[in-house]
Design a protein that fits this description.
Layout (H helix, E strand, L loop, with lengths): L13 E5 L2 E4 L4 E4 L2 H4 L8 H13 L10 H14 L5 E5 L2 H16 L3 E5 L8 H5 L16 E4 L4 H11 L3 E7 L1 E2 L5 E2 L2 H14 L2 E5 L23 E4 L10 E5 L18 H16 L2 H17 L4 E7 L2 E6 L4 H9 L3 E2 L8 E4 L7 H14 L2
Parallel strand pairs: 3-15, 5-6, 5-7, 7-10, 10-11
Antiparallel strand pairs: 1-2, 2-3, 4-12, 8-9, 11-12, 13-14, 14-16
Helix pairs in contact: 2-8, 3-8, 6-7, 9-11
Bound molecules: 4'-deoxy-4'-aminopyridoxal-5'-phosphate.
Amino acid sequence: MNLFDVYPIYPIEIAKGLGSYVWDNNGTKYLDLYGGHAVISIGHTHPHYVERLTSQLNRLGFYSNSIKIPIQEELAEKLGKVSKFEDYQLFLCNSGAEANENALKLASFYNGRKKIIAFSHSFHGRTSLAVAATDNPSIVAPVNETDNVVFLPLNNESALEAYFTAHGNDVSSVIIEGIQGVGGINIASDAFLQKIRSLCTNYNAVFIADSVQCGYGRSGKFYAHDFSGVKADIYSMAKGMGNGFPVAGISIAPHLKPKYSMLGTTFGGNHLACAAALAVLEVIENDNLILNAQVIGDYITGALKGNPKLKEIRGKGLMIGIELFEPCEETRKKLIYDYQIFTGSSSNKNTFRLLPALNLTKADADIFLEAFDKMTK
Ligand code: PMP
């Protein structure tokens, strides 16, 4: 049986990882500034993570959501504390798309409406409603096409206001990434997020903060949307949540009330997934990783800002977009093959992304900065 060939891949086999480094099957060591697509939040094979998962697996890996699972409550309590949203409610699932799908659905159950506002260059996932709210027609199948989603320009307050004035009572939800990831690291401005908040409040629409990539401390705050000083009604999260174990969730404001069966999942919130997610939060908290993301992120962006070969540096914390004046594919290849450094691409062909583990050190950052300096001399 062959694999269904949907991924363009680099012919490298990663065999082992430790912290911010991975080794291929020939023993070559690489600096991982990609984090397996923003997934590795606390570093590869972190000892606390390995220990927590192993001991949970030795006791019980899985049982269904039809029984009491105290480790889910433990996770909800810890997430409330670390994210500082203690009065919100947690629903657990398995992937970013599923988190957004549930968020959009919950919003519609809440206000009985159908219209969703999403923004240019957004990415929210590949399931039916999540992909319909993603600004990339090439990944939307005919069956996913819907009139229920409207795309407005990012950071354009007057376009948003005009849409609400005309159709506000039909709007179920507004979904927005705090920092667009796949779209090439575009920051939603504080003023724009504040405007979304006030319009959603005025029209009883639901503000959904897609924090799948920009959340979990990566930006230097727990959710990138936190910089704006306003609260969303639902935060979706996934990638960094399990440091590679598939676990996702939505954090839900108190006014959105649950009802039996309105949402559900077989695998979501299983014992192993919760152990992984708890281990991640414990490390983030104990090692002060949100602050580290801010400090090392500022160090990298500060060092790159003077480089005349770069068109623009965008991002916050350890979610950094580097835009060149030309397509970046060759630069990324050179970084991998000549300097053994992994980075991430984006749908903006001139922009590549740094999405490393949140415990990246200054010494790790210097390896990249020196390599990049040499390459762009
Ligand atoms: N939202 C955002 C902002 C993402 O970056 C992604 C994944 N790139 C998703 C949703 C979908 O997540 P998943 O691949 O886990 O379904």
